[in-house]
Amino acid sequence: MKIFQLCKKKRYKSLLPLLLFLIFILVISLTIYSGQKESLAQEKAAEALLHLSNADCIKCHSTVATTVDSKGAKHKTAVNCMDCHKGHPPMVPKDKIIPACSECHSGTPHYELAGCNSCHSDPHAPLEMKLASNITGPCLTCHPAQGKEMKEYPSRHTNVACTVCHSAHKDIPPCMNCHRPHTPEMVNKDCLTCHPAHQPLTITYGQDMPSKYCAPCHQDISDMLKSAQTKHTALECVFCHKERHKVIPACETCHGSPHPPAMLAQFKECNACHINAHSLGK
Length: 282
Prior knowledge:
Elements: H1 2-8, H2 16-50, H3 54-58, H4 62-71, H5 74-77, H6 81-84, H7 137-140, H8 144-152, H9 162-165, H10 188-194, H11 219-228, H12 237-240, H13 252-255, H14 261-266, H15 271-274
């Protein structure tokens, strides 16, 4: 203020423009310095964001960290936070923080599917999937062997969606959810002993299979065998029908040629006389 008053005096009036110029230069310098200081601070902040660690992220995102630790699968073991999230606001716009799945996942038919988050709803728990009840195609992109099996061995299972049985990923339901057991004491492992789930009509079994498991589907034959009371009655079904369903052995397998050649020449089929292997004509 005293400087301006001094400049008003006649002999100092010529210094006033110089003084104003110097003040202008000072203001400009301070503005530039302030801008440089702010820019430097932003650069340091950006540099810090580039070197964020998982430990830094966890400070604000502890819930996400807990999910990744317990259910993250390869999103826990193969990558860290900044491998997916390339920055943080304000340096990176909020809509750019979450990457597209295709940035990492590509090269297989499954990864070409659209709408990843319709099943993988939480990328921090990628294998905790929510599945609709009518999905088959997407499942077969990861499980082609099962799809081939169902196609080559058609059954009623072929005509239902994968998620009718597998309502959650890796969920293998007990057969009894849909099917009645042959006998009350049967458990799920007994079903799978004979019926592979993806080709249930390809029925195979061991020599320890009890006849009571066969009888519910072949009740008329079981009743006939019991009422006949022949040596066949004492045998388990699998003694003759070995290893797989619908095997019908030749009588000669066990009995050889028990009759004279002349009789065998006239009656070429055993059942011409014995009528049925389960009753032997009685």
